Amino acid sequence: MVTTFERYHIEIKEAVIKTPLPSKFIVKRYNNCLNVQECTQTCIYEVHKRKEDGQVNEPKTELCRGCHLCTLVCPKNGLVLQINPEFESLGDSYYTPERMKAISFEAETGRVPVSGTGYKGLFAGKGFDGIWFDFSEIVRPTRDGIHGREYISTSVDLGRKVSYLRWNNSGTLDMQIPRVIEIPIPIIFDAPCPLAHDAKLSRVLVKAASKLKTFVILDANEYSDDLLVYSSHIIPRFPEEKINTYAHLIRQSKIVEIEILKTDDIAEILRQIKTYNQGVLVSVHVPYNENAVEQALMLTSSGVDILHFYLPEDECIQDPDRIVTSIRTVHTALVQAGIRDEVTFISAGGIAEAAQVPKSIILGADATVVGHAYHIALGCRSCDRKSKSPNCFPHINEISEIASQRIVNLIGAWRDQLLEVLGGMGLREVRRQRGEQGRTLFYSELEEKIFGENE
Amino acid sequence: MRQILQFQLPERKITPSKYANIIARHEVIIDREKCTVCGKCMEICPEYIGSARIDYEAFQKPQGLLRIIQPSFSCKGLACQRCVTVCPTHALSVTLSPQYHVLGDQRWTADIISSTWKQAETGYVPSGYEYKTGQSEGGFDKLRFDFELSDERQSDIDCLSNQNMDTSLLLNKSNDGREKITIPLPVYGGDMSFGSVSLNVMLARAQAAQAWDIFTSTGEGGYPDELIPYKDHVITQVATGHFGVNAETIKRARIIVLKYAQGAKPGLGGHLLADKNTPDVATIRDVVPGFSLFSPFPFHNVYSVEDHYRHVQLMKDINPRALISVKVSTPTDIDMVAIGSYYAGAHILQVDGGYGGTGAAPDIAKKNIAMPIEYAIPIVHNYLLEEGVRDNFTIMASGGIRTSYDVAKTIALGADGAVIGTAELIALGCKRCENCERGRGCPAGIATTDQILSHIIDPEWGSQRIINLYHSWKNQWDSILAILRYEHIADLRPNTLVKFKHGRFNHLIHLDHRR
Q1: Is the peptide bond before B298 cis (omega within 30 degrees of 0)?
Q2: Which CATH class is domain B26-102?
Q3: B350 CA to chain A: closest CA distance, Å?
Q4: Which chain A residue lies closest to B109 (C-alpha atoms)?
Q5: In chain A, positions 21-40, which contact chain B (CB-CB < 8 Å)?
Q6: pTM above 0.95, yes or no
Q7: Which CATH code fits B169-510?
Q8: pLDDT 10s digits, B52-107
Q9: How do residues A331-352 score in pLDDT, each as one tens digit?
Q10: Which among B367, B380, B506 is the top mutation candidate for probing chain A, defined by the most A β-carbons within 10 Å of its own β-carbon?
């Protein structure tokens, strides 16, 4: 059999929505303007333009990039530059206006955000912001991946792996090799926010997932029949007692997900599911809490294929450190028990920017589950996330093509940034980044080592 | 015996900004209904004449927003309010200027930018600004010299000190017979390529370097002929793109820098986006104009310490008199890189921390890759000291060093000196608006190669601004040395392992860890 190698490629197309985020800057003109036109000559972003009658137009604030120049050259000092209060009030302490702006840029263009001048933020921060990647220098070659000069794989495997092979006396394999499913990016989409949920949103998501050749998790009761054509990219999620209700979905799916288990008899549940579909992989949706380690060990030894741990977004916002310690703890416990490679560990929570995908992986997850970020790509303003707002996705009806393209663009930009990190670290594939904590620089540890108490 | 450097300081000259207005901290607003245009406010203002002015014409206009007094840089705003009190009709109010809030960020605060502008203008530190530290909540911004905490009035000494201390730095500490270059300041100019910045900016920096007898660097983008008159003060950079690198440009320099990595984008090659690759830039880089240039990474002939040795030796063979500087960023094993470079025969190791400047870099790399310079310097210093080679090797710190105090702190942490990039551009009027990378580039004419925009900066004006900035910095170092009773800035560098105890080490105190 001849198989042709197909290089994974994400098709980027510009995708503009009608209600972009509010612009960051506002330029105001005071009434002492004498129409000197210094501003029109200075501004290279076309914020200030002449009208046909020669007068200066009202400033086109949305084009402004905050260079201050017009306010400096105006002979009457008649211009003032401000931060748009509407922009400043976007999001919250975790999904900051700057992060939302970055997501929105990535969704619109599919490009990696590149800018001039050095880093502008805090020295270090909480959670993911307290982590730096190591990189390769001189003796460990880097990889030149992003511009296609060297191939770097971003594929990961979902499913169990055996630690060794067993042969019988006649030289044939004496065990069953579990099935794994390879996805070309270490990103799976979480079920949409229940507030914003409607059938159109599921469709947009599923389309994006199928273009990206990855999976989206959907609540089984939202899984309408017209989505069945995309069944190879959907992971239906249901509570354990509904196994029989969703037998038809189990038969159609490659992976199913069980909501946190109440019974202890996992093996029985797995057996029940596999009677409907022998080859299906079973994922379990478990919260990161004080029992997380215990759960991880128990589920892994009972034969679950995928551990999907999650930290609800509002808990990430409250304490961003929790997600970092949680991933590390679960991964370390599995390693210490000697069963890390037997299970796939995917982590959800706190993925608000591209860097947090490789950061989750370097802390120990095999892949990440992206939730709130794609909502922002579709125009969610991240207002309070407690009540449905008519502004959630105001025009998803007309723009489903554009909407799914925006998700594709976002992930395209994130994958390129993942390649930047892997290239810089000299890694040829993202699988080798998993759990590489020795190549991670932790703020807390460095701070203690250099400025803290020695000895 | 240390050799005391006799050096004629360049002249300070007042060099104001070329703009009509400033970005002031405060704003005075007049209620037009109430104002009787009596002028009492202008009489009482201690900062008045020249900078505060009332725009009477605006009164003629019937409606619209009104901001009629533009306060000077040194308006004390809410703390003074004399104009508000004196007004017979209560027509005035003073507020914080919303525009000052736009300026700057946590690392380069509006105060640091404004005070750097003021130092570039006058050559002295302005009063009333927090010019020493930013608000990044870590690193230099949490480190203090003990005298800063013990006596609050010490900050005034900076402006008063006129002692001329020895702030010189010996760059070649090995005894290999190459030139013992000594520069009068513990800093020199960072690497900025033609392409990322304009030729006029390079000229301004080169002229300032000549006046101070320090150095500036060509960066990656080749050696423009216009810099040849300053060749004794221009470092030739050899980077992975090898743009404009040839035997001639290597032979021309007194120092050659091999750029292995850059702090703003460690592990990635240089970026010059298509819009900025103009015909002029393309000619000097020997490439096709209009395409994005992403330099390869790493040097594909250097994959081991042995390769690194050959690379350094090759440069030494081509130019038998130059010093070799190795520019690296900060991976976990920066100590190993440092010792490797020492044994490869380099004279200078430039450690470029993760928060360094750039003309264009992916945001993900700027924030998330490599460690900050404040950690890297003690690691390198301690390791080289333990290996017994510290005094034969010059360590230059760069990447996120903004102020004279940052330089002093980095020396106190174990570096010999610092390499300055962004601060020089701020002196030329940069506002860190992040728009260097694409389109026509910088609207202020700094990081641009646009035909028209690149002529905005006048090299004479620019070089004087940089000269003034270094004057002010030298004053501050002089007073730090005077207070700490050191004769020479090299004495500030520890001769022992850098080890903090209870948040203290020598004269440094870390605010978060002190007990």
Answers
A1: yes
A2: alpha beta
A3: 14
A4: A120
A5: 25, 28-32, 34
A6: no
A7: 3.20.20.70
A8: 455 554 444 545 445 555 556 667 777 788 888 888 888 888 888 888 889 999 99
A9: 999 999 999 999 999 999 999 9
A10: B367
